[in-house]
Amino acid sequence: MEIEIATIGGYEAVGRQMTAVRAGDDVVIFDMGLNLSKVLIHDNVETERMHSLDLIDMGAIPDDRVMSELEGDVKAIVPTHGHLDHIGAISKLAHRYDAPIVATPFTIELVKQQIEGEQKFGVENDLVKMEAGETMRIGDHNELEFVNVTHSIIDAINPVLHTPEGAIVYGLDKRMDHTPVIGDPIDMERFREIGREGEGVLCYIEDCTNAGKKGRTPSESVARRHLKDVMYSVEDYDGGIVATTFSSHIARVKSLVEFAEDIGRQPVLLGRSMEKYSGTAERLDFVEFPDDLGMYGHRKSVDRTFKRIMNEGKENFLPIVTGHQGEPRAMLTRMGRGETPYELDNGDKVIFSARVIPEPTNEGQRYQSEKLLSMQGARIYDDIHVSGHLNREGHYQMLDALQPQNIVPAHQDLSGFSSYVSLAEDEGYKAGRDLHISRNGQMIQLVE
Ligand SMILES: [Zn+2]
């Protein structure tokens, strides 16, 4: 059976991930993401109003024109998890394919909300829920399986396409977490089985982020302990404490909510995306929040809540807000600019349970936001975080478990690939032979 891989997006930068695998007559698309930095750099771009081709030219969504070179029918579109660089282009591109979108329940719900928010593109693909550990037939000869992985968002999986020539493992976005705060540990046992059963692993497509970092990525429970220590250390402070984190990082939001209560403060979630992700996770029973946990997204209700906090005393509350990257319209940035009714005093604490995404726009915006907060007297606690991606030893362990015949590095630019390439070459692979370095819009023929 012919096996071909189209590396469509995310092979020249992080963002707008999209990869297609053809096994005989069947094609499966993995991820269909957005490159948010290409959108945000322009001041007033409303992506919902733009044509897909203009968004492709902007570099915001994957250039899927190469799909016409793949001779087969798309049988499924499979987003691995709910981050926007993996699902953000579904609402703009999926209607071009007559295939269902297959994902885990939390991811499907986020996809559904996104499609509803951007109906202009007319995406009407079926939405099919599939849990980690389950499988689905793809055509007459292939099978799709979801393997549970751990990442900085709940309900993440690595999809595996089982073909008569061996398994294709799409390894994007995971950390090897054996003590996660929500959900099951990564299913390494299944990865080891897949590496040894049948024809083994024909190809492993891997997220190279952090391949240059030594050692092992710590578990989410380490970030949780760090956060607990920081929050308990300010228990006796009788002024304002504000926290921010990735709104899609439900495990972290859960920890913040719990420790706020431990130190005698009422947590409250503020900002549109805080309300969206936490509300969705709670509705789908991934997390149980206290009954009286307030979640407010709209500007008016947020400002009303800030007024209430100022009236009842800042020392009684812990607002958990958007703005960990200094995004200009996010809540914490507005607080820094003095645009909300919440007044910061000398000595108030601002907890960043996040790290700055290393990208010039973020770095500049975050710098500005922190400076504005500091100028009002705020004390900054930053980097209370662990990465959602594998470090070098995690990558080594994955190669050891899967023993792939071919590797395709992904999710980085060329310099980001280099550490992974040297790791793989140390393990006996060779660039140009069985280690395929690819660019956006290229094709790799694995079996002719
Ligand atoms: Zn991710």
UniProtKB/TrEMBL annotation:
Binding sites annotated in the UniProt record for Zn(2+) 1: H81, H83, H151, D173
InterPro entries documented for this protein: Metallo-B-lactamas, RibonucZ/Hydroxyglut_hydro, RNase_J, RNase_J_2, RNase_J_arc, RNase_J_b_CASP
Presence of keyword Lyase: no
Gene Ontology terms for molecular function: 5'-3' RNA exonuclease activity; RNA binding; zinc ion binding
Any one of the GO BP annotations: RNA catabolic process
Residues that coordinate or bind Zn(2+) 2: D85, H86, D173, H411
Coiled-coil intervals, chain numbering: none
HAMAP family per UniProt: RNase_J_arch
Subunit field text: Homodimer.
NCBIfam families named in the record: MG423
Name of the protein in question: Ribonuclease J
Source organism per UniProt: Halovenus salina
